[in-house]
Amino acid sequence: MSDQTIPVDSTLPHRATRIRPPVSELIGFEVTEAADGHATVVLQAGTRHSNPMGTVHGGILCDIADAAMGIAFASTLAAGESFTTVELKINFFRPVRDAMLRAEGRVIHRGRTIGYVECNITDENKKLIAKSNSTCLVLRGDQATGR
Question: Are 138 and 115 in contact, with CB atoms under 8 Å apart?
Fold first, then answer.
């Protein structure tokens, strides 16, 4: 794993776009890009990510999608804003074992209060493994404090 900083636009106000999330240590993913409503997370998936059937556990796929979408959305926040995810959905299209996975999150809609984000997870052959989406709620003032 690399150090705590990731290559992003340093003018972005929210810390979620600049600091590697602690969960990345647990899962083993890297944030490789984050700016302007887009983020990319990569994971070298292996046996440590497997479910009892020997394929990558769906929760791992959901984790990298959630990270990519959350960081993408965080890149749209103004100073003093934060957010929370209020809904997340994922569809699994094919099983995967040992593979370099790429989760690309992108903000589709960013309103004043609600945002909608999508993510495609692909393998090193650009095959679609899973697709996810989430709805985010923008927080301001006391609601955003400490988040």
Answer: yes
Beta-sheet pairing, 38-45 with 29-35: antiparallel
Q: What is the DSSP letter of 7?
A: S
| HSE-CB for 134 with a 13 A CA cutoff | 26
* Per-residue tokens: 44: 């070298």
Whole-angstrom distance, CA of residue 2 vs CA of residue 33: 14
pLDDT in tens, 62-114: 999 999 999 999 999 998 999 999 999 999 999 999 999 999 999 999 999 99
Q: pTM to 2 decimals?
A: 0.86
Residue 53 phi/psi, 5-degree rounding, is -85, 0
Give the chain's domains with CATH numbers: 15-143 (3.10.129.10)
Which residue, chain included where needed, has tokens 């957010």? 83
